[in-house]
Design brief:
Potassium Channel Kv1.1, Chain A
Length: about 180
């Protein structure tokens, strides 16, 4: 395993996005290079192991990844991985919003980051609260069905249950609007 030199006197930028801009400054702080869509993100293995039990097992057990310096993530999108890293970063955590749930939930599920899955679930449920009469019924049905499909795909049973409750009540709202 390569040794990590003592920190330089330069200011350390721990934001994963900065790793693309300041590779020489960042690289001595990291021991892993994530390869995503022919781009690189530099992260400490310890950070990934702290966030994810999947990465912890990968780096602490006798898997081939234990001693690697590069980890290709085929099939992943660079932007999604970057947002995932920002959402899990302990120093500068990006606030999880509903807009980024489709980007981070698949990664949170794959890498078993339970608190992030829970945040995504809460945001999905919050999208189904409020006054549905502000939107056309067809827009609501599409939105709720998309939430339900995503929740089903990632085994979010409480979100699926809430979707069923809300979708079944839309029929009542639709007929109520006709009277």
């Amino acid at each position: 395993m390569k040794t990590i030199p003592l920190p330089s006197t330069k200011k350390f930028k721990s934001d994963p996005e900065q790793s693309e801009k300041n590779n020489s400054e960042i690289s001595h702080w990291t021991d892993l290079q994530l390869k995503v869509e022919y781009k690189e993100l530099y992260v400490p293995k310890s950070f990934l192991a702290m966030v994810s039990p999947v990465f912890r097992l990968m780096f602490e057990s006798d898997f081939k990844e234990k001693d690697i310096d590069e980890l290709p993530l085929p099939g992943k999108k660079y932007e999604d991985v970057l947002i995932f890293l920002k959402c899990t970063h302990p120093g500068k955590r990006l606030k999880v919003t509903y807009d980024i749930v489709p980007k981070v939930l698949p990664l949170a599920h794959e890498y078993q980051v339970q608190w992030l899955i829970d945040d995504c679930s809460s945001l999905m449920i919050m999208q189904m609260t409020g006054s549905p009469s502000l939107f056309p019924i067809s827009t609501l049905c599409t939105k709720y069905c998309n939430i339900c499909i995503m929740a089903e795909k990632y085994d979010l049973t409480s979100v699926v249950a809430r979707c069923m409750e809300v979708i079944s009540s839309i029929n009542y709202l639709f007929y109520k609007d006709l009277t």
